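Sequence in, structure out. Go.
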Amino acid sequence: MTSRRGNQGGVIVKHRVGGWLPRNHDVLRKWLDKQIALVQSPARRDVPLHPVIVDFQDFIEKDPVIYMGFHQMFEQVPTKPPYDNDPTGQPQVRDYKLMLQLFNQIISTAPAFEENDLVGFPINAILDWPMGTAAGMAMFSRPDVNEHFKKMFDVWSSFLTSEASCVVLDNSENGWFGPSATEVMPNFAETYVCDPSAPYYGYTSWDDFFTRLFRPGVRPVYAPNDDSIVNSACESTVYRIAYDAKETDEFWLKGQPYSLAHMLNYDESTPQFVGGTIYQAFLAATKYHRWHSPVNGQIVRVVNVPGTYYAEAPEEGFPDPDAAGPNLSQAFITATAARALIFIQADNPVIGLMCFLAVGMAEVSTCAVTVQAGDVVRKGDELGAFHFGGSTHCLIFRPETAVTFASEITIETDVQLNAPIASVAAA
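Output:
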């Protein structure tokens, strides 16, 4: 089971993790109903589509296979909760034309903290139904479809990096410094670099707020000179630890085994990691979104890999943190989604070459790397950041690296940035 009814009404969808979508499905339905009412209101009915949306529509309508797929994804019933048990059997977003109208609205807005919750994946919310269908999987896996999503996200990114996007950075009921959001992010001013006396707390855009920095000393680097200790690269929740990773595997099947060659985009160093260890953890919506070096060493290579945005695991959807054991589906996107690879030659020869893998999950999900080959990094040095969008990351070790994870590093554990997560034995 991956859904149940909550104490306050509404189906609780347990595979929605990290706070990016409300787990109470009624909250999501109300949000989507409001967006649909807005774009279909008489005042908005004649609002022209942005050129990037017009281009997307032309692309859908002029290719017969795409045209068919974007019809079928709204006609088929998803195989995931809560829709697989929905007696109405009808999507809120009825067709691709309404989908495009909603996209047109979203790309000129910044997410607010509405209904005492965050719809941090607004495009994902619009596509939640078709993502669970076979036609949706087929369409969202196509590179040409993802090219159009990328063009649309570039427009949205321009808005999210503008001062106009600051409109939600206030202390109103739906604002990010209002009472509801403050409950979720307590001690904000003491934790993050900001100026509560300035407009928008001193942030220049929504993206500036999203990629906010910790105040100095909030996340001290553990054992900065001890090369036998591996630190946490992100403020994150442990998702999975896997051993004896295969070079290639059937990552789309139930269990979602890691497939190194696909994860690393067939990089020349892939064979060195076969049989090695993979640590994966995901970042929550309201937390810190920058990445930092887990070891002392030197950057060997940086690779940016384009990928999908809305192709979710066909067998399982996204992970279920309430299950008795780890649901392994999030591993699927490590092989398919847009991602960045940072290869680091650790100073400790027992670690040797390792890889930090940043994975964008839906929406803008930009993986912005701030280091380059040849840079010397110390534990805690910034490597890059996720710009608005969901995210997960992996640390990948060679089989020769005997990694022992700390006893408290277990599935679903929240781990602070720069905290120790593992040690390596001497050769």
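Check: The first strand starts at residue 3 and ends at 5. The chain has a mean pLDDT of 85.
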